[in-house]
Design goal:
The structure is a homopentamer. By secondary structure, the first copy, chain A, is mostly beta strands. The first copy, chain A, has a domain at 1-56: OB fold (Dihydrolipoamide Acetyltransferase, E2P). Chain A has one helix spanning 61-67; strands spanning 2-11, 14-15, 24-29, 41-45, 54-59, 76-81, 84-87. The interface between A and B is medium-sized, with 34 and 30 residues.
Chain lengths: 89, 89, 89, 89, 89
């Protein structure tokens, strides 16, 4: 599970019909200090995340589980909105 | 799910028979600013994507779901054609 | 399976309901000499790991198996607390 | 799905018995311009690929599907022999 | 499937009970010229591999298949001991 920030949205009219109704959020992977790591990915929102929110996202089968859409071609999903990060290293 | 651009095609006559009928598109991964990231992959088209189109592609089991071919050895597929990208970071 | 160190926790109140009760631990990947590799990930604790402990974590379906929650959108989990590492190369 | 070139073979006498009969080909990942990318992997041949041939290979469950051996511990397989690559970017 | 060398072991007393009996081997990924690539991982031995041996290992579901433990949180396993590598590039 990864930390990210929702930074935008993607609109695709022509798409797999099992993706209809899924919100496609551009999600920037972050370090725990909230600095960007690498390039954004596109994740399906499953928790009502808005632009600018700090989120937890997952990849692979876990994403379809989160979306409750096992027949949809989803491989990343936002599964939580972060309230607090505590580091003790 | 990832942003990419279709930049070509691959033809393979000798192949797994469950790949017959699948269009193999060379897909260049892109940043949200549409700059290339790393090297192209080969993804099966499932939405009628053409050369030069901006697409969303997926990896793993999601690709077989998109292709409606769970018995085919597919591990990447194009699942949408992008109309619009909005970034607010 | 990977070596890591638990360095913190993440709290998310709004999340997938199947994540309720799962402890989200910030886990720093380590070399076998216990030096950090890349950026921390978020893994579900399944063995009672505490902050500062050296752990083994897994990714993908193995994480849901460890959590005994196949319907939960978990893609990384801590599966053991390391007592000893022996290198002979 | 990835482009590669078969550059060698691996022999392992002591192995998982479900790998018996699978040809283990050393496969060099390539760019679409056929330049090496990173390090070779070991992929099971499922299409009669020979040394020096340009191939398409897959990873994960798709590899077991290609091998028609869902009970075999295979995570990469060659699924096609490339006749032609066309790039239009 | 990847080439590696067994360079050590990890002991974890507190662990997922489905890992009991699995030998956790520290495995260094190698190039085909047997030079180290990146950092070691922890793989379950399924073929009686010893320290210093050159092995083939797999990731993901293939690892649980190799271990004949589909309910165990294993995501990497050693599946063969290498006798010979032939490169013809």
């Amino acid at each position: 599970m990864y930390l990210g920030k929702v930074i935008g949205t993607v609109v695709a009219t022509r798409k797999d019909e099992n993706l209809i109704g899924s919100k496609l959020m551009i999600t920037q992977p972050l370090t725990m200090e909230q600095k960007p790591i690498g390039d954004p990915i596109i994740a399906v929102d499953t928790v009502g995340a808005g632009i600018g929110e700090l989120v937890i996202y997952v990849k692979g089968t876990a994403a379809r589980i989160a979306a409750r859409k096992m027949d949809s071609p989803i491989d990343s999903a936002i599964v939580g909105i972060v309230d607090d990060i505590t580091i003790d290293n």
